[in-house]
Amino acid sequence: MKPSTEIKVGAFVLVSAALLFGGVIALGSGKFFQHTEVIETSTRESVDGLQIGSPVKYRGVPIGEIASISFADRDYPEADKEPNAFDYASPAVIRMKVRLDVFGPQQSDLFTKDIERGVEQGLRARMTSAGLTGGLFVELDMLDPSEYPAVMPAFTPKYPYVPSANSRLNEILATLQRISNSISRVDFEGLGKGMQQSVADINRILETRLDPMLANADGFITQLDKTNTMLQTVIGDPKLASAIRDTSAMMAELRTSVPAAVMQYGEFGEELNALVTSQEYDVRRLLSALRATAENLEQLSERATQDPPHLIFSNPPPKLAPGQLPR
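Above: the chain's sequence. Below: its structure in token form.
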């Protein structure tokens, strides 16, 4: 056998073995038997780190991989508004192969056929980093439609379309940029001058008001010490202790004598009440006699005023026998 023939045979054998090995691996992985559908999205963000074959995840669950990455001008040239001009703002179109078997036999076809309803409810595609040093992958997730409105492209997609949302990294960078812009607008020089003026005003207030207050406080403390000394002298005076003891003894005597005096006064009141009650009839008779005497004196006075001679010179009335009436 010629050397050239041997080389051809060896190459054929190697190629056949490689194809056989690749076929076994492909059959073992089951890719030939997986039911896949293509969906797409577009973005104006940088897709640096996203490659063909990068994973596609739905809420963290792997459901497919990136099939192609290109520009809208290439996939949809009919959408160019200016055919003879390069569109520098052309978005990147990302097409994804999605395995529908992960959703179960009853829901496999509904994911792509009813994707418009999912978009209305907030289904969005966003690029996510696999780690600090890892590449990017596309994550499908449900977001708030009011915060992430669905922005449809200028072209008509060939496959079920999922609007894109800004990546978390870009949102963080945008927030930091807004914070930086806000900080840059702050007048730190003016704030510094204002703080210096405030410190000067505080020092002036301390010098004009606080020092006299401290001096008055020192005088008050001195007077308080003197008052305390006088109070200690009064408290330590033996006469005060003796007066306190005398007061205690007087109070004890009052506690003993006052109840007895009150009891005596009560007994005296009872006796006086009994006396008044017993003499009540005699007092009434006396008052009745005094009243009759006063009436007789009043009649006598009237007769003396009206007919004095008759009262003085008239004969006394005749004596009447017992039972005889005057004529």
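The chain has a mean pLDDT of 77.
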